[in-house]
TrEMBL record:
It is found in: Cell membrane. Coiled coil: none annotated. The keyword Nucleotide-binding does not apply. This is MFS transporter. One of its GO terms (cellular component) is plasma membrane. CDD domains: MFS_NepI_like (cd17324).
Length: 405
């Protein structure tokens, strides 16, 4: 197997070369490189979600409330929203392989500091480091994969990356809960540090050097955001992701609408959602490569239809399970479809476009949860589900109408 020293330095090729009629051959080393990026995302996102499964133990050990301990997740998201749009401009000339390795090392350091943190504030500061690592890594993933694979394989490449996200969302909370009960919360973060180390070694072994793409600097980021198609796309990302999180953040009170709901049925419901997300992620690569325009319209519309079905059919547990399965599958496809859309729209500015899109996802997570909470308090959870789903569907229509892809 060739090591990084034997691999040729890669750069993003021209649009004409990448979109020619004859599909470019993709070797095993290229897929290994993409897999290493996907595993890096898996390690970082797993770490992001761990506090959700360990809140009671962290709060008790730190002498604080569970709500305060939960700010470990908020700190990660806020730092992520700041880092994602600026990472490419802050290090415009640094080799992207080196950058991903350094960001993974930063995630590893965050885990170690959390594991030994003597106080709540040091724990919170350590999670800020994770926010920078995760958002920076994810923002660079599109450009790095785009430098390794031809345009007609981008959907499948981003699927590999986003499967890491899906697996992390399914695995992190239940495994973290189980191991936290068995070992305590600090050893769980030591295990997360070991996972980050494996990701770092995989990147060092399999990812070739990747030259920065496009003109450096914040000016390029601003210019990319101001193009009409990209601006419409960013609004669409905000609507789709914000709508999803406005609904999913409050899936627990929504589940209380179902008369037969109990802890076992709730666990099954969330498992169905997780499995649906995984299936949607796996299928989205082929759809993105072959029917992107249709896929990026249908997936958000299905989110809207399934959240509305949840609200309207909440009297039947079976109907709610079906709605949640469709919801999970539809949202599972969104990251791959969106990133492939971005690659088609801005093939020569993948880094700033990917950074802006990742930043908008982070903003949408926070704002969607906030808007959903207001709708829940002012009206009820049914209204929150319907409005959130409508926002997602409108986002899909915007994507499909922005530009023929």
């Amino acid at each position: 197997m060739p090591g990084p020293a034997t691999l040729v330095r890669v750069t993003i090729t021209s649009t004409e070369t990448r979109t020619g009629a004859a599909p470019a051959a993709v070797g095993r080393s290229s897929w290994l490189a993409v897999g290493a990026v996907g595993f890096g995302i898996f390690a970082l996102v797993t770490t992001e979600f761990l506090p959700a499964s360990l809140l009671p133990r962290i709060a008790a050990d730190m002498g604080t409330t569970e709500g305060a301990a939960g700010q470990a997740v908020t700190a990660t998201a806020v730092m992520g929203a700041l880092t994602a749009p600026t990472i490419a401009a802050l290090v415009p000339r640094l080799d992207r392989r080196t950058l991903l390795i350094l960001l993974t090392l930063l995630g590893l350091l965050s885990n170690v500091l959390v594991a030994v943190a003597p106080s709540y504030w040091l724990l919170l500061a350590s999670r800020v480091l994770l926010g920078a690592a995760l958002a920076g890594f994810w923002a660079m993933a599109l450009a790095v994969v785009g430098s390794i694979l031809p345009a007609d394989r981008m959907g499948r490449g981003m699927t590999i990356v986003n499967v890491g996200v899906s697996l992390a969302t399914v695995v992190a909370v239940p495994v973290g809960t189980y191991l936290g009960e068995a070992w305590g919360w600090r050893p769980v973060f030591w295990l997360a540090a070991a996972l980050s180390l494996v990701a770092l070694l995989a990147l060092a072994a399999w990812l070739p050097p990747v030259a920065p793409s496009g003109a450096p600097g914040l000016r390029t980021v601003v210019a990319t955001a101001r193009t009409r198609t990209m601006a419409v796309g960013l609004v669409a990302v905000g609507l789709v992701a914000g709508g999803h999180f406005a609904a999913f953040t409050y899936v627990r009170p929504a589940a209380d609408l179902v008369p037969e709901m109990d802890p076992g049925r709730l666990a099954l419901l969330l498992t169905v959602f997780g499995l649906g997300t995984f299936v949607g992620t796996v299928l989205s690569g082929q759809i993105a490569d072959r029917r992107l325009r249709l896929g990026i319209l249908v997936a958000p519309v299905l989110i809207g239809a399934s959240t509305a079905a949840f609200a309207v059919l909440s009297g039947s547990y079976g109907a709610v399970v079906g709605a949640v399965a469709v919801w999970g599958a539809a949202f599972g496809g969104v990251p791959t479809l969106v990133m492939t859309w971005v690659a088609r729209v801005e093939p020569d500015r993948l880094e700033p476009a990917g950074s802006l899109t990742t930043g908008m996802f982070q903003v949408a997570i926070a704002s969607g949860a906030a808007v959903g909470g207001v709708l829940l308090d002012v009206f009820d959870v049914r209204v929150a589900l319907v409005v959130a789903g409508a926002a997602a569907a409108v986002g899909g229509v915007l994507f499909a109408s922005a530009r023929k892809v």
